[in-house]
Amino acid sequence: MKRICVFAGSNPGVNPAYAQYAEMLGRELLARGLELVYGGSNMGLMGRVANTVLEGGGKVIGVMPTGLFRGEIVHKGLTELHEVVTMHERKAKMHDLSDGFIALPGGYGTFEEIFEVVSWGQIGIHSKPIGLLNVDGFYTPLLEMVRHATEAGFIPQMQGELVVCESDPAVLLDRLRDYKPPVKGNKWSELTEE
């Protein structure tokens, strides 16, 4: 792995641990010589992780649609900024630039981004590792929903392992480094094997 894409809230959240863990993740990326790919904002958790990597001399690549420059407030100190037109282009570019994905706490946008890369992994578009940094149990309800969907027969059992979840940034990055996709092929593979 050379580059990790981090999805995160453009707000800081109410729990101070969210910002602390964004900075811890940034320091861990630096310690491993990993470059950061993210949405390009200087706000919220997005800005925290980016600033931590930049302040340590690391490389940070932002991707942002022109229409969000004022709302998300584009970061002016990035190593590279890719300006795109649409959110679809943004996500495709972030995917293309990255070797793996991590979601910090966030809202609708973060959920949508992480679920899109999980869905892409499920149908065989990529086999890159995907992780959740479960700060103070933030992602525990989401993991319960995934378990529920698996038990209800909507997610094949083996594909419940597409997402790695840890509460420690170093452990999460170790697991992403050692990641092996749970299945070859796509979500229909285990349905057609006989």
TrEMBL record:
InterPro entries linked to this entry: LOG, LOG_fam
EC number annotated for this UniProt entry: 3.2.2.n1
Domain of life, source organism: Bacteria
Organism of provenance: Brevibacillus gelatini
Database matches in Pfam families: Lysine_decarbox (PF03641)
Leading EC class: hydrolase
Name of this chain's protein: Cytokinin riboside 5'-monophosphate phosphoribohydrolase
Keywords, sorted A to Z: Cytokinin biosynthesis, Hydrolase
Gene Ontology CC: cytosol
Coiled-coil ranges per UniProt: none
Gene Ontology MF terms in the entry: hydrolase activity, hydrolyzing N-glycosyl compounds
Family: Belongs to the LOG family.
GO biological process, one term: cytokinin biosynthetic process
